[in-house]
Amino acid sequence: MTLIFAHRGSAGTHPENTMESFVAAEKSGADGIELDVHLSKDGEIVVIHDETVDRTTNGKGFINCLTLNELKELNASGKFKTFQSFIRVPRIPTLREVFEWMRGNDLQCNIELKNTKIMYPLLEEKVIQLIRDYQYENRIIISSFNHYSLVQCYRIAPEIETAPLYSDGLYMPWIYARAIHSKSMHPNYRAAPDAIIQEAMNEGIAVRPYTVNKEIDMERLLLIGCSAIITDFPEKAVKLRKKIGK
Ligand code: G3P
Ligand code: CA
Question: For position 21, which CATH number holds?
Fold first, then answer.
């Protein structure tokens, strides 16, 4: 069965990378969530996409120049400006908060290390320590566009699955994935033709294309039995999977 991973939670309908978005993903029947991590000024692992808070919050500045307390004051509603503000203001979660919430479900979690522009000291070590503290080794996939970082993760924790992110057409990407000790790969869906996905899966490499939001693309991937899809619209994907029986 093709698994459905909710990209930044249910980011198409809720403020991305917030608890509200992750809870919505769980409610939609997704099998997993995808989220992005950076380090705050005081070294906390925080869940947010960009290097700055400018786009997704009412604040300004680089994440690694703000303390966790400062980050926690921000409204993370992003483009959903007034999202549930009458109930509770969405905040930037820590990875630990997400892991606490995961105690109450059996979702998988794809952690994307956002360390291509800023090299956060000890990001890999801190993320892996937290995974081990919660004994989530079998529920986590670590991905990144920084493939050196994935090799570093493998060296520290060979038991945790890693997956290279890429957006252009790699030649025989399953060989590359194996070369960097990854058991899976996360291509942009436009760089993942059926034949490449099927060959990779035949070679034992799981394929989870991102970010698959249109029904026509979801359907193609569901019909070929792709390992998983990463989507902003998990509810739509779950309904479609039911409809076509995959
Ligand atoms: O993990 C897939 C996808 O999230 C990678 O791109 O920019 O949405 O983090 P981005
Ligand atoms: Ca991501």
Answer: 3.20.20.190
